[in-house]
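User: Once you have settled down, look closely at the record that follows, taking as long as you need, and be ready to discuss the fold:
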Amino acid sequence: MRLLNLNKFLYILLFLIISLSNTQSEEPVDIWKKDINNTKSKISIETEKFVIKKNNVLKTNIKKVAILEEEAIENNDRELLGIYDPQENNFNLDIWTQSSGEDIKNFFKRIDKIKLSKSAEDYFEQIIMTYSYLPKNISNEEFLNLKIDWLIKNNKDELLEDFLSKNSEFKNKKKVIQYLVDKNIAKANITEGCKKSGFISKEIKDSYLEKFKIYCLIFNDKKNEAQLVFDLLKEQKLSDKFFENKINYLLGISEENYEKVKEDSLLNFYLSSITVPNFNYEPNPKTNKYIWEYLNNANLIKVGDIKDKERIKKLETAANKNTLDKLKIFEIYKQLPFDINTLINAEGIYQSMDGLDARALIYQKSLLSDNIDSKINYLFLLKDLFKKDNLSNVYKKFLSDTLKELKKSEIPESYIEVVEKNIISDDEFKLGKIKYNDKILHRSRIIKHYTEKNNPTQKIQKDLNNIYKKIRKNKNYFFSAKDLALVESLELDGFIIPKEINLEELAKKYKVPEGFTKLIDNNEIGLLALKLVEIIGEDEINSLDAETIYFITHILNKSRLIKFRNKVLIAALPQRS
């Protein structure tokens, strides 16, 4: 649309230039009828000069028009994909164009190994999902794959749905659609899944999605409508024999039913599970994780013979890889039989047992312990047993949840520290009510410029002058890195800083790595923003040390990423209840 508008403008411009030139280039008429053989009149001479000049201008303008058209076509070929308008975060379409695709790929490799904090994750999402042109030496498909793979790995379903609705065509579309369909099937709540089959706009057509919608129509007893959509799918040659067999069977058109379990996609596996009589499926380490999830949620994983230790060990491995619900393992442990003598003497017997039996025995012993001291002891012994067989991931959250259930007042003092270290916090970072303190610059009413909307600039300036006068009287006052972060930001925002505050001198205490300055100079704003996300990492903004807060805000000020800077200041500076 932008290219068409530009072309329209250029053609109008060209037409006007040509029209003007044609008008002016008509042969001049000597209206005074003086001696024709004599020199031309001044008017004729001037007119001729004007025509020559205009013809030269015309040639120049035609060249300019051609260049503009080439640039417009070139820009149009650079596919724009994203969710967020660049201006929302002080970005522009060229935030990546000066950066190497290899640098971006290396960053994604590093970030995959970090569990980002909520604030870091939020910034990261906004950066990578902003409409923009490509970095150097990387294809559009490859760059988009980096983003989509991260979103899928981190279960960012809403962002993916939003991305689909705002970007109708892109090479990775099928991958996104199948992921979203599979996520809904894997929940084993088809009623809810079918309600969510509208999560993708009707304009988006995909055979996998259409197949799921056909099944949903049958599930909701809309067989006539399902038949119409099914016939259309076959006409478009987007169906296959397996799917046709299952749908004809479910519609009651045919009694023929393939009893083979097909697992090339979750949809085919699901159709197998509801149509194959006495359905029984044995997952293995190579089984798709969404099939594992569906089996979990549909309660289709059966241990069968509790004496089949190899089968149980495979389930432990699956749980450790997050493909099986970890609680299933502890349900199995409770079923393993031990005689009363073995349970009584568990501490002396478990060491001679196989790893699986030892874990099950100590787990049962912990359940039977009514003494909190011994219970904690068994819980941490069990942690060591899981670690010994490289199955720590099975137990980590289970241990945390169990420790949370203990009353703090009853925990022996010798265990308090180790208990706290093993509790995983589920609380999201939440901003509390601000408590302003005018004795400390970065906690004073001055920060209302950032924490409250529509504060008059004159009032903030007056507060800055008055509060600083009071602080100056305190000879023991330490001008901190957070104070410097605030004052530098205020100066950039147009406030007059008291002359006594020498920002250059104060800033010398804190060294900014040369690499960040180079990124700003090279206009590699996207990569710069990613590196700041990496610095925040697993920490919430309010838990970062003062020097890191100054460094981040200083870089954001230098790169003019004011909206991100404001978010950092709001989270890091105030004291909250």
